[in-house]
Amino acid sequence: MRILVCISNVPDTTTKVKFSADNTSFDDGGVQWIINPWDELALTRAMELKEDTSNGVSRVTVVSVGPASVEPTLRKALAIGADDAIRVDGEAGDAHYVAAQLASVAGSGDFGVILCGIESSDYNGSAVGGMLSEILDVPSVSAISGLTMNGEEVTITRDIDGGKEEVSVPAPFVGVVQKGIAKEPRIAAMRGIMMARKKPLQVVPAVDAETLTETQEFAMPEPKAPCKMVEADNVKELVGLLQNEAKVL
Amino acid sequence: MSVLVYNENWDGKFKKLSYELVSYAKAVAGMTGGTVTALSIGNVDQDELSSLGAYGANSVLSVAGVSEGLDNQLYTQIIAAAMEKSGAKVLVLANNNTGKAIAPRLSVKLKAGLASGVTAVPESVDPLVVSKKVFSGKAYGKVKVLSGSAILTLAQNSYEINETGGSAAVEAFEPGVDASSALTTIKDVQKQEGKLLLTDADVVISGGRGMKSGDNWAPIEELAAVLEGATACSRPVSDEGWRPHEEHTGQTGKIIAPNLYMAFGISGAIQHLAGVNSSKCIVAVNTDKDAPIFESADYGIVGDALKVLPELISEIKAAKAQ
Ligand SMILES: Cc1cc2nc3c(=O)[nH]c(=O)nc-3n(C[C@H](O)[C@H](O)[C@H](O)COP(=O)(O)OP(=O)(O)OC[C@H]3O[C@@H](n4cnc5c(N)ncnc54)[C@H](O)[C@@H]3O)c2cc1C
Ligand SMILES: Nc1ncnc2c1ncn2[C@@H]1O[C@H](COP(=O)(O)O)[C@@H](O)[C@H]1O
Predict the structure, then answer these.
(1) Sheet of A228-230, strands arranged across
(2) Residues of chain A with C-beta less than 8 angstroms from the C-beta of B117
(3) Any ligand 1 atom below 6 A from CB of B53
(4) Does ligand 2 have an atom closer than 6 angstroms to the CB of A131?
């Protein structure tokens, strides 16, 4: 079985968010780009599954939709251990456009497990994984915090309100993963970085696809009032403020 | 413009979130004088179903006889059928695990643009333009939906519940899909019974590494109990095993928006704030006057959490007794 991991290229999570002067686009000056944290965990889990040879995972492929500037992020994924990478050469318009590109890639290989993150940490869409599954007309499971294999049989743990469920779906399927899927993201070792240079990174043209949404403009939240400080020996005053001013007690 | 709102149930009951969703759907429909149809899937009794009318649902479609276990494909088919039946142009769901699982599938099936995690009613309906959080709450983006119908998932605790009174006619709905076609097999369910869920709590008391040890959590739990709230923690705390993983809030954990969030010994890293910065009121107690948490807090005390907590508990008890 082959595993496909969909990788979203996002600004480092500590990035100070700025927009262009007319607020219509993200200002990426000086931004460090990383593998979206959930995608990094998904890739880590995919590598663990492949390493246990009894699972019969033959290849782990990573794919990203974007311009040439996403290639360093794909190389990072190769350095972590992915066998090969695909870049769909297109601007990642909206989630629907991206999902249609991924569907075209996923449909051209015999992937049993297709993994996406629960959201991209930049636009917080929580959309691409589910859309991809519907386009492919295959099952999807969301909020996955655990995935084990026993031969071809996959067992999934998903989070539900106040608990967890253990479920299974037939392959091929799309798994939308969150925290817990792997303990810690795997860090590329020197050897991995060297090897990544020689691994295949294939560029494929984008297919025609519709965009259903467009982000027109960005805004920063209203600046908030400064924090009211209360002396540590006057906890009573804090309780009074919470009761009478904030009215939250 | 009519609106369909999907209302999940929990063991046959609705909760605050359901009323928030219906109130929101009512406001969206009200922008153009449309009606609100609420959809319920699973076994919910008549009184519970018609209670949605009090928050603005004009009618309720009830699909019984479908197992509670979520099968994304099956639920997508049912909700799509209800969209067609109701003639709605806008579909509203919660931006929770369930909504995130099915809204994108519906977007493809209905060819309806999806705006997820919206926090307010659209600013216009034709074209539909709505604000949503981006960069984990660090900014807002205005999303324009280019398709004829739209799907909105509402960020939890972002819209005021509005009890309008009124009642809704309940109609049994037969969506014409084969419930036995579900491909998801549910092998095991583990639920914490009787515990207030972090995402439902109005008050959340949270501790970070500044609490020093998992053994110091009794006052956090006591304060939560006094305020009928839930307990939470920062990521290192759950990584250390001081607290269960379900309690970890932040970008990679739970995203919450209670009325009151109290942070004890939490520095206020950007990834932590991403999970809590929508809270109505944030109180921080930290020994370091320069801790970043004070930039996001409404009220703060520079002091030792372990000393402040017992005093706070007794002052709140005293205030409550009055
Ligand atoms: C990709 C990524 C995702 C992440 N996701 C999350 C997430 O979802 N949630 C999350 O929480 N973190 C997350 N983190 C980690 C985050 O960056 C911080 O490291 C973490 O939030 C710090 O936790 P803390 O505030 O408990 O600990 P610290 O940063 O160590 O802060 C402890 C604080 O306690 C104070 N203190 C010490 N003693 C006392 C005392 N006696 N009384 C009062 N105050 C005291 C100190 O002054 C300090 O401010 C993420 C990091 C990365 C890189
Ligand atoms: N441009 C992209 N290329 C490849 N995968 C993507 C892209 N954008 C999003 N994804 C995948 O979809 C998930 C959810 O993203 P989103 O819907 O943008 O929040 C991400 O975690 C990725 O796995």
Answers:
(1) A228-230, B299-302, B281-286, B260-264, B203-207, B230-233
(2) 124, 126
(3) no
(4) no
Please, where in chain B does CATH 3.40.50.620 lie?
Answer: 3-181
The ipTM, to two decimals, is: 0.93
- Domain covering B3-181, topology: Rossmann fold (3.40.50)
Contact B270 A13 (CB under 8 A): yes
Q: How far apart are CA A87 and CA B108, in angstroms?
A: 23
Q: Which residues of B touch A94 (CB under 8 A)?
A: 113
Which chain A residues are within 8 Å of B304, Cβ to Cβ?
A: 232
CB pairs under 8 A between A and B: 262
Residue-range domains of chain A with CATH = 2-215 (3.40.50.620)
Closest CA to B102 of B30, B94, B130: B94
Question: Any idea how long chain A is?
Answer: 249
The secondary structure of B124-153 as a DSSP string is EETTEEEEEEEGGGTEEEEEEE-SSSEEEE
pLDDT tens per residue across span B207-256: 999 999 999 999 999 999 999 999 999 999 999 999 998 899 998 888 89
Answer whether A129's CB lies under 8 Å from A116's CB: yes
Q: Do B141 and A161 touch (CB under 8 A)?
A: no
Tokens 């929101």 correspond to B24
What span, in angstroms and rounded, lies between the C-alpha atoms of A7 and A10? Answer: 9
Write out the CATH class of domain B198-321: alpha beta
The pLDDT of A103-110, averaged and rounded, is 94
* This prediction's pTM: 0.93
Q: Mean per-residue pLDDT for B157-182?
A: 92
Q: Give the torsion sign (CA, B179, B182, B186, B192).
A: negative
Length of chain B: 322
Q: Whose CA is nearest to atom 12 of ligand 2?
A: A128
How far away is chain A from the Cα of B214, in angstroms, using its nearest Cα? 20
Question: B299 and A248: CB-CB below 8 Å?
Answer: no
